[in-house]
Write a structure and sequence with these properties.
Length: 140
């Protein structure tokens, strides 16, 4: 397995994977999210490949204080084979190299399998509530 920073030309296979593992929501445009992360100075999308085939992704972002993980995805054919763990470690390293001291991510309520996965990697549930406000009416 190899892990690399993905490029604009990878968008189709990335968004296909995100849809395959049900990460896309109606209010998020995956193409726009991907291109924004790839173009950002403090963000990237890392991809795991096996024999040249994309089998996993993680979007990373650094806000100057903490790192964030988004779109952690592993193709069903590669799940439980260490891809998610490897991607998480690569993302942590990417963020650490940029000065992040803490990594955070969000898991939807009721999505217990990822909660267990992250717990096994040393992540803990935070004692915070995430608030949100839609800035575009068409995004809801």
């Amino acid at each position: 397995m190899t892990v690399r920073e993905l490029e604009r030309s990878d968008v189709e296979q990335v968004t296909t994977l995100w849809r395959e593992v049900d990460l896309v929501r109606p209010w998020n445009d995956p193409d726009s999210d991907f291109h924004g992360a790839v173009a950002g100075a403090t963000s990237a999308v890392l991809g795991a490949e096996i024999n040249g085939v994309l089998v996993g992704t993680v979007m990373v972002g650094f806000d100057g204080h903490r790192g964030w993980l988004y779109y952690v995805a592993v193709a069903p054919s590669a799940q439980r084979g260490g891809v998610g763990t490897a991607l998480t470690h690569w993302a942590e390293e990417w963020l650490s190299e940029r000065g992040a001291h803490k990594v955070q991510l969000m898991v939807r309520r009721g999505n217990d399998e990822p909660r267990l996965f992250y717990s096994e990697l040393g992540y803990e549930a935070s004692e915070v509530t995430v608030f949100q406000k839609w800035l575009r009416a068409d995004a809801t």
